[in-house]
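Blinded run. Sample ID left blank on purpose so nobody reads anything into the name before looking at the predicted structure. Input follows.
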Amino acid sequence: MDDFNPNLNDEEVVENNVSEETPQNEEPQSDTTNLEFEDTPVWNKVEYTPIEEIKDYKPMGKGLKVFCLVMAAVILLAATTAGGYFIGRESVSNNYIGNKVTVGLEQKPTNKEMSTPAQVYQMLDESIVGIRIYNEAGQMGDASGVIYSSDGYIVTNDHIYSEVGAPKFKVFTHDGTEYDAVYVAGDTVSDLAVLKIENGNNFKAAIFGDSEQLINGENVVAIGRPNDATDNSSITSGLISLTRRRVKTTSNYTASLIQTDSAINPGSSGGALVNMYGQVIGITSSKLAGVEYDAIGFAIPTKTMKRVVEQLISKGKVVDRAKLGITYTEVNSVTAEIEQYEAVGLLVVSVSEDSDAFNKIGEGDMITHVNGIKISNDDIILDVIEDCKAGDTISLTVVTKDGDEIDCKIKLRANIGESSYSESIGEREDPENQESNGGKFDFPFGE
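Blinded prediction complete.
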């Protein structure tokens, strides 16, 4: 993925459904001082006074022995039961990690007429599910999901369980049938997650299209369960406002997303953005919220989804996403003129010690080019990094704080994301506010 930009405008912040790369600020390691003795240390002889043998010892009574044995058995039984519970719980999820489940991204048809919204709904209805998230403390939320494979893997958003500790999942299909599902893996950076219907088979998987083939102004529909996970899926229509817009999320990541004016509401999270050929081209995730915004929603492109979901299922986490490992301030032409900078680019604020850029560039340096491309805004370098994998090398042109121009090769490190999933229930929320938790998501700048 890419590196956090602290100067993104507040209006670019979207309600928590999406993500990108976290800033790489790390505490410096303190130096270790080697101690040397000039003289050999003198070891003092210590005289010990022997302890007299205790002769008034009384053996443990028979009743006390029995009591201790009973208590030991109780403790052992409790430990075994608890251990078995957690091992069993962990093994449920792990049973579905390590598999190779992949989907192809179909090309947009060139000799086929576009379908009507009603026809697209009929094509996708069986592949869209409602997800109820709940726990033993009574916390609950609703969200949507898309059937990824016929054996019951479901792709949705990672944020849907962020406010429900130790979550359990019920999945409701198009005909109202209810299934138990388990958490497989999630990723905060991309805001994608995978659930698995236990012992699932013969489900209708969605057809996924290539999000790279989208064009601005193309008609699309969004299908999900915005009101209630047990309701029928609903559909909203709109168009592609932008095929690629980089936005800042409430988790301080940035992500390159599809922007649409199709209505995306709480509960729609994890649903499908579909082209007029019935191909899912994005996983709906968020919207800009507030009275000054109208019909600005976002979806995670299927190009990103495919790469992330395949690794979540096979490895339990994303392992090849790249990061540069710096924090920076964007300096555009206007900022450079006002602040009297001699160059335009990324002003380095800090460099993580685990970054290959450490000791090559430093605070106060200005990155002006990446792979020979001039950096007029930070989207340029972020897009380059997002298209790379961990271990790839990029070329940077840097104007140092002393005014020298240097070129350096940087090997990108792995940006291994974590999940919002928690096995701890935590403090129970106020029941009157439970509908704002989980999949209902009151967006932080809206309503």
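Unblinding after everyone has recorded impressions. The longest strand covers residues 234-249.
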